[in-house]
Amino acid sequence: MFGTRCLLHAAAAVLLAVSSTHSVAQAAPKGDGGTIRMMLNPAGTMSLPPFVIKKFKLDEKYGFKLETINYTNANTATAAMQSKSAEMIVYEWLATARIIDGGIPVVGVAPFMTYINTVLVPEDSKLKTLADLKGKRLGVHSKTSYDWMIMQASAKQKFNIDLAKEVTIQEAAAPLLRGASDQGQLDATQMWNSLAADMLASKKYKTLVTIRSITEDLGIPTVPYLFFGMRADYAKEHPENVKAFVAAYQEVYDILRTNDEVWEERGKEMKLSPEGIKRFRDQVRADLVKTFTPEMNDALQKTFDIVLNVAGPGVIGFTKLPPKMLSLDYQ
After folding, report:
1. At how many degrees (to 10) do helices 93-101 and 74-82 cross?
2. How high is the pLDDT of residue 18?
């Protein structure tokens, strides 16, 4: 009797486990087969997710088709979203807020990374803080980016220096800034992490300050700096496609965290040195974000309030952060 009862319980447990596994499999998001066109800069870290999705055919797995459209500046990306030539953009949160404030509804559907970029100086530079940039030549990848805003905010608060007025600014895409730095035309430059890794590996450059350290020093909470923003009208009309993309991204996250081969392959495509690839991989892995949390919208609001208070509306370009930019509805 006792043995029979145990066998019955064991059989029931197995059936329950099989049923649960089947339910999870059945519940996996599946898109409608439609295309998601993603705007991205091919030279940046944002090129990693679509590379992994295509390599492992995750769009096919989850029932949608991913296409990528390259952009080199904010105006191009914004125009594509406005004209509905693209459904999605990988962008920093402040730039996304600016797009929304400009009348183009965008919703964050999945995170990507926290604050990742740096300010580099030549290895023999005597510059030690943002205050030392006074009277120097500084490269910035965008005068409307969070990186530049937070640098100004920090310099004003800590050193009472207006960087916008007291440095000579050269604005250009990060690859061009790297070239200008190599030619000795800049005393310091903002740099994407994808390029900074190789520059640091060359031993010709060192870090003056990281955007993360500036952010933390001002008491700003860590939030997704880059995230996947979807046109709100598309998200409303194709929620299953959005959920499918988010599921694919979460698998990308797991692959990037554990698979070294994808870093080698993509790193070589990006022309990174072996040491640069390792630096790039380790830094990105530390900063990847898999899912939004309920606290992140409040953290973004706090971040915006601090930056607005220090930098001012004239620098930011608008005065109110769009509410609930980050949606948990598709996770």
Report:
1. 50
2. 41
54-56-60-64 Cα dihedral, nearest 10 degrees: -50
Contact 39, 81 (CB under 8 A): yes
137 DSSP β-pair partners = 168
Distance CA 265, CA 255 (A): 13
**pLDDT given at position 309:** 84
Q: Chunked in runs of 10, what are the mean pLDDT values of the chain (331 residues)?
A: 45 43 61 94 91 98 96 84 94 92 95 96 98 97 90 92 95 94 98 94 97 91 93 97 98 98 96 95 96 95 88 87 95 95
Do 147 and 117 touch, CB atoms closer than 8 A? Answer: yes
pTM for the full predicted model: 0.86
- What is the rounded distance in angstroms from the CA atom of residue 1 to the CA atom of residue 223? 59
Give the residue from 148, 154, 153 showing the smallest Cα distance to 177.
Answer: 148
d(CA 72, CA 171): 13
User: All domains of the chain, ordered by start, with CATH?
Assistant: 35-114+224-316 (3.40.190.10), 118-217 (3.40.190.10)
Six-digit token string for 254: 């797991």
Cα torsion 313, 318, 322, 325 to 10°: value is -90
Q: What is the largest CA-CA distance in the chain?
A: 89
